[in-house]
Amino acid sequence: MASEPSVRQPARWSEIWGWAMFDFANSSYTTVIVTVAFGVYFTRLVAPPGRGDSLWGWAIAIGNLIVLLLSPIVGAVADDSGRKKLFLFFTYATCVGGTALLYFATPGRVGLALALFILSFVGFSFGENLAGAFLPEISTPANIGKISGLGWGLGYFGGLGSLLLVQPLLAGDFAASNLSNLRLAWVVTAAFFMVAALPTFLFLKERAPRGSEPALQYVRDGFRRLADTARSVRHFSEIARFLGVYFLYYAGLTSVVAFAGIYAANTLGFTFKELVFLFIL
């Protein structure tokens, strides 16, 4: 019987670049929407006075909880069905669409703003996980760190590039007089993500064999794999402890990222220009 081709063979440069471009693209979302701009816009102009911070925190928490609960199932189904790239495209479209629709999150429309933000945040987070799942397939043990670092590094340039792109729209600061420009900034951010991620879907290959089972069967198998993992976790106590500590660490990091811009603008009184300078530093 012929052996299956190894997925550990080095990928072509075009495929590696296409994979790394997803990090470049989705950093526009974390930079403009989560960290620097939309959070400040929401707390200042959309949410009721005095409730912006708590509502924003709840939105981040709910988004992370959805991802935490569903990621093992989504990952298992994507792996078993051989459709990681299709799942990645769906999460990408969800984040891009949800971000663009933030245009309609005008002052007072708190429920709509929170629903669209959570939708886009969940799409972004699932996309991060699915994109990361391709890394072992396009690398070898000798270059996995280099390829991972390429994606991570490009992400910083993507964040800076998207921020510079929306800077003219945000230059009028987070005020009602600048509302029309602020709303357009979310659409521009979505367009940046949409266009910059196209190389990922053009060049990244799906190496896993395509499954032929009904969709519901993959969902059942996903739950079964999750249950098996839970039962066997006692045999891997070091991994369990590591994941527990990492979860707490990541929760703190997410909080800092989500509230950095809000704290700087609303508590320390930073102007938008100072926020941009802070992020660049």
Task: Give an account of the 3D structure.
- The radius of gyration is 20 Å and the shape is globular.
- Helix 3 (52-81) packs parallel to helix 5 (110-133).
- It has 281 residues and is mostly helical.
- The chain is built from 11 helices and no strands.
Low-pLDDT stretches are 1-7
Q: What percentage of amino acids are in beta strands?
A: under 5%
User: Roughly what percent helix?
Assistant: over 70%
What overall geometry do the principal axes of the alpha carbons give? globular
Secondary structure class reads: mainly alpha
Number of continuous helical runs: 11
What is the rounded Rg?
Answer: 20 Å
Tally of strands = 0
H/E element sequence: HHHHHHHHHHH
Q: What does the largest sheet look like?
A: none
| Separation, N- and C-terminal Cα atoms | 57 Å
Average pLDDT level = 89
Summarize the structure.
This protein has 281 residues and is mostly helical.
Blueprint of the fold:
Blueprint lengths: L12 H24 L1 H9 L5 H30 L2 H18 L8 H24 L10 H27 L8 H18 L1 H6 L11 H18 L4 H31 L4 H9 L1
Helix pairs in contact: 1-5, 1-6, 1-7, 1-10, 2-3, 2-10, 3-4, 3-5, 3-9, 3-10, 4-5, 4-7, 6-7, 6-11
Key terms:
disordered N terminus; mainly alpha; 281 residues; 0% strand
